[in-house]
Structures are given as C-alpha cells and as structure tokens.
C-alpha cells in the first residue's frame, strides 16, 4: 500500500499543498518549511489513534491558529474555518479491497490523477490502478466549544447527499502507518502507552490477552507491608484518626499499600522495559540507556513491525540521524528503503541523503501565501545520478538545503573565500552572515563542472554565484557560465594563487612564509632565510600555494590579514553576494525583537 497524493488545506504551517509521491520519499527543505507538518498530516488521516484523542485537534493545528472567521458585524456569529487533509492510496491489500470495496476509485499512474466516473474505459492496468481516498476534516464546534475531527471516505456513494462515510479505527489499522517523531520516539518507544511501538507490536501479534487482568491480580496480592513491619504502626495510627471522622464499616484494616493504582491505563504508564547493555550492568529502564542505543532499539522494533505486516507498513520518520553515528544512519536509511512498503523521511544528514536516489528526493518550496510544493531533485537539469551520489557528502546536501550557492572551481578557493567572508562580517555588523542567509560554498573541483552544478542549483530555486579565474575561453563557453549563474564573477588573474600574490600585502606574504618555516609546517618546501625582492617573493608565494592546495595555505595566509589587507577581487565578489542577501530590520539587534507571552 502506498500514498501517491497528499492534499493539505489550512493545517499547521501549510495553508495549501498538493504533493505527489512515487514510493519512498526523502523530504528536504530548510527549517520551518513544512516537513514535519507533512508527516503530521499523514498521521492525522492514517494514524489509528490520533482521532481517538480528546480533543483530536487544537487551535494550533489550524494554519496561523485561524479556526474562526469573524463576521463583519459584532452581532454576527463567527464562521468555522475547517482544516482538511486527504491522501490517495494505491496498491491496496486484499483485506482493504474487501473491507472498503464500495469506496474504491481508479488512479491514472501515467497522468497522476483520479479518473472520473465517465472515464471507466481508461481504468485498465497498468496505466490505471485501484485507489482509495481518505480525508480528515477538522472544525471548531462553537456550540460545544470543542475542537472536532473525523476521517471519512472521500468517495462515499452510499452516503446521504452532502454526507461522507466515516473511517473506523479498525480500517485504519489495516494501513499500518507509523510516524516516528524526533522528540517523542525515544521516550515512548518501549513503553506500553497507547500507540507506542511496543503496544503496536503486541496488538499486531495478539499477545495482550489477559495481560492487564493477570498483572492487576498479582499486584493486588503483593503484600508490601509484610517486608516493612515498621509501616504498620503508622498506618494504624492514620486509620484511628480517620475513624474519628469517617466510619468505614470494614472489619480489620481499611487501608493498604499497592505499587500501582491497579487500573489498565495506569499500568500502561508505569510498566517499564528494562535491559542490560553489558555483562557487569544490572538491567535499567530503557530510557536510561544512551540516546544512540535507544534509537537503534527503535530500529529493531521497526523491523519487527515490518515483518509482521510486510505488504502494508508505511513509515514516516523525522531526522533518523539524531544522536546516531554515520554508519547507523546509513543502516536505518537502507533498512527503510529495502524493507518497507513506503517510507517518508526528513533529514539534514548527507549520510542519509546519499542513500536515496534523486528521483526519490523531494525538495520543498514555500511561497508567500504559505502554499507548499515539491520538486524531485532528478527534475533539475545538469546533474546525473552518479554525480548526486558522489557529491552528496561534499557540500551538495548542504547547498540543497540552503538559499544560495557559491560555486568555485577548486579547493583553494573553497577554503579561502569563507575566511574573507568571516572577516568582513566580523568587521561590519550591517552584513548578514552568509551562514544565516543560507548561502553555502561549493567546490566543483574544476571549471568544467561549474556549469552543470550552477544549472542544477538554479533549477532548484537557489540564488547562484560563480567565482573563477581569468581565461581566454570560447564565447559559447563564457556564455554557458553567464547563463548558469545569477551572479557570474570572473576575476582578472590567471589563477587564484596569482590573485593572492598580486592583491595581498607583501609584508603579510613574507610573514606567512616565515611562519611556515619557523613552525615546520613548510613540509619540505624551501623558504629563503632572507626576504627576497618583491617579484621573487610573489613567485615563491605562488609556488607554495600551488604546491599545497589541499593544505589550506591560502586560507592560512588570509587569516593573518586585516580587513584592509584582504584581496580586493574577493571582497568585491562577496559584496555582490551580500547585496543579494541584505540584513533585515529584524536582525539589527535585540531592540528589534518583540516577545509576546501568551
């Protein structure tokens, strides 16, 4: 069973969204764009326990907490503003088809749309497949002063006009949807609270029969006072004082001590899963183990659930990289891709991102009206799948999650330009730091790669910048660079090392060489004892920087410069970047921050 379309209206941080999925989906985007809202929206429709809560929704489940539209006149009754989330499911199990047959429709896989009743002649596989639409509608009930939500079959041919058939919890459990929230998974995974992973496993395995009744009986029979005789006089004295005001009419003792309230719900909250992590360690509550270990335990439970319902489990998982080393991140991503019917994953980790193919990776965008849309990474031009996998850990993932990309042609520039940027930002508080703006440096490794990466980032909606050496190139090659970048910058020097030697203070260059020699960091590079003439000094610096590109020597030289001594070409280029991302009024200091206490 798979979700192929998700429609969201007026829910949480999203006013409108229509998103299409094709199997596993890695959902990327900057913070606060709506990644978690998408997972919460799916849970609202498919999660078996969400609607059972009281209340099932609250004020902030509505976009901007707007659940009422006030009338123009004060005496007019306000009009509720509903929230609505709809999913379209395909590859239905036989159990679902049998249970929900009257609600079945057809989905065109070629056109990614529902077929209308007049298009039944097109409802032939593989071009079209059976589908099921479910929607959750939430409202504020003014008369009852309560928030209400219910899940329905969007296609309800047997319902009364204007009505929809409700979807029960038993039907929702057929879908096997699991949502693993970043902040809640660890604290509840191995508890027996309703909806926890352990509770789901016990329910699926039918292993809970008699559990509560037998446990309550044994706890009631447990004589705590027997091993604590010193309590008896205290309890007897308490009873005597109670007897002066309340007559119990009970023969013997009327008070007892138990380790629980002896109710099913209380036991759910108090039962704890213990485990030992080493031979010399006594069992401890699972919450007490390390965060990384706890998340691995969650993975073990996920694999158990997937094996119980191999054809229908849909996972939504937020940031699996939290507190996990890279190799475990990769294992979790690989497990989800191999062993689940469909997985929705949000992440900022390159170790997770690299495991998904470009056509499985969705980048979210958001307009000023809070409408969210998505684009497959594979739809962006210029980059092949093997390029994506190769560069995922080399800054590509960081760029995708940002707002702008500065593409340079080599490692020297990649190390050096951020040094200049930091110095400028520290010297001028009116500049918006590039990190805060979401502008990322990217090493394309060669000029020949710059165009494809520029086009790729540009197609994803990033503001793109190029910085490269002067070269007598063909007009069509120069035009390709101009077209690939919003800001194209070719400095006037035939190499970045030449730029450094020509534009940085000669005193700083000599100090740099002396420091290399005195610290022993020159690694065999010959540095004269006495300062040579200016041209020979520049030649020596160019040779040092070219021979040690990977050592970060250019960045080291620039670190020693004052702001006034920084190379003019680099400063001029970075100023063009800052112009594209000016500092907003909100960022000019604490005086501009207004805090509201609700």
TrEMBL record:
Transmembrane segments: none annotated. It comes from the Bacteria. Pfam families: AAA_15, OLD-like_TOPRIM. Residues 403-469 form the OLD protein-like TOPRIM domain. Residues 1-73, 217-353 form the Endonuclease GajA/Old nuclease/RecF-like AAA domain. PANTHER family: ATP/GTP PHOSPHATASE (PTHR43581), ATP_GTP PHOSPHATASE (PTHR43581:SF4). This is AAA family ATPase. It comes from Spongiibacter nanhainus.
């Amino acid at each position: 069973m798979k979700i192929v379309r998700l429609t969201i209206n007026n829910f949480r941080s999203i006013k409108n969204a229509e998103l299409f999925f094709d199997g596993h989906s890695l959902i990327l985007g900057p913070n606060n764009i709506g990644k978690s809202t998408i997972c919460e929206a799916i849970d609202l429709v498919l999660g078996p326990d969400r609607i059972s809560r009281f209340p099932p929704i609250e004020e902030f489940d509505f976009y901007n907490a707007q659940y009422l539209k006030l009338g123009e006149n004060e005496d007019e009754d306000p009009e509720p503003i509903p929230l609505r989330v709809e999913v379209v499911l395909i590859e239905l199990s036989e159990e679902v088809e049998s249970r929900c047959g009257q609600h079945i429709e057809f989905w065109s896989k070629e056109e990614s749309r529902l077929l209308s009743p007049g298009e039944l002649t097109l409802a032939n596989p593989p071009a079209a497949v059976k589908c099921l639409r479910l929607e959750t509608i939430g409202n504020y009930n003014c008369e009852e002063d309560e928030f209400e939500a219910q899940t329905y079959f969007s296609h309800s041919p047997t319902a009364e006009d204007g009505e929809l058939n409700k979807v029960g919890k038993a039907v929702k459990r057929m879908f096997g949807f699991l949502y693993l929230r970043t902040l809640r998974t660890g604290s509840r995974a191995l508890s027996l609270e309703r909806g926890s992973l352990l509770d789901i496993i016990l329910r699926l395995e039918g292993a809970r029969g008699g559990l509560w009744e037998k446990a309550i009986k044994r706890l009631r029979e447990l004589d705590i006072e027997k091993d604590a005789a010193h309590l008896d006089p205290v309890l007897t004295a308490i009873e005597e004082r109670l007897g002066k005001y309340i007559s119990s009419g009970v023969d013997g003792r009327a008070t007892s001590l138990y380790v629980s309230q002896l109710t099913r719900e209380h036991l759910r909250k108090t039962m704890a899963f213990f485990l030992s992590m080493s031979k010399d360690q006594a069992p401890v509550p699972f919450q007490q183990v390390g965060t990384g270990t706890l998340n691995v335990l969650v993975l073990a439970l996920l694999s158990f659930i997937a094996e119980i319902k191999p054809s229908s489990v849909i996972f939504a998982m937020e940031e699996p990289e939290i507190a996990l080393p890279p190799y475990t991140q990769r294992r979790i991503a690989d497990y989800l891709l191999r062993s689940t019917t469909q997985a929705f994953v949000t992440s900022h980790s390159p170790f997770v991102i690299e495991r998904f193919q470009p056509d499985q990776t969705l980048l979210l965008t958001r307009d000023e009206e809070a409408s969210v849309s998505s684009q497959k990474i594979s739809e962006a031009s210029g980059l092949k799948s093997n390029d994506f996998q190769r560069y995922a850990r080399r800054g590509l993932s960081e760029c995708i999650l940002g707002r702008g990309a500065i593409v340079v042609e080599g490692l020297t520039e990649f190390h050096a330009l951020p040094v200049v940027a930091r110095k400028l930002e520290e010297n001028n508080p009116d500049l918006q730091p590039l990190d805060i703006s979401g502008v990322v440096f990217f090493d394309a490794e060669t000029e020949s790669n710059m165009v494809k990466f520029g086009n790729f980032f540009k197609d994803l909606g990033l503001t793109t910048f190029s910085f490269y050496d002067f070269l007598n190139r063909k007009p069509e090659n120069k035009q390709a660079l101009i077209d690939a970048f919003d800001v194209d910058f070719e400095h006037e020097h035939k190499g970045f090392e030449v730029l450094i030697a020509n534009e940085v203070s000669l005193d700083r260059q000599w100090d740099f060489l002396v420091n290399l020699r005195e610290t022993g960091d020159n690694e065999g590079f010959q540095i004269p004892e006495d300062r040579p003439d200016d041209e020979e000094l520049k030649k020596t610096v160019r040779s040092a920087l070219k021979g040690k590109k990977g050592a970060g020597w250019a960045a080291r030289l620039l670190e020693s410069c004052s702001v006034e001594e920084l190379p003019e070409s680099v400063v001029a280029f970075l100023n063009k970047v800052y112009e594209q991302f000016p500092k907003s009024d909100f960022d000019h200091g604490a005086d501009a921050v207004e805090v509201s206490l609700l």
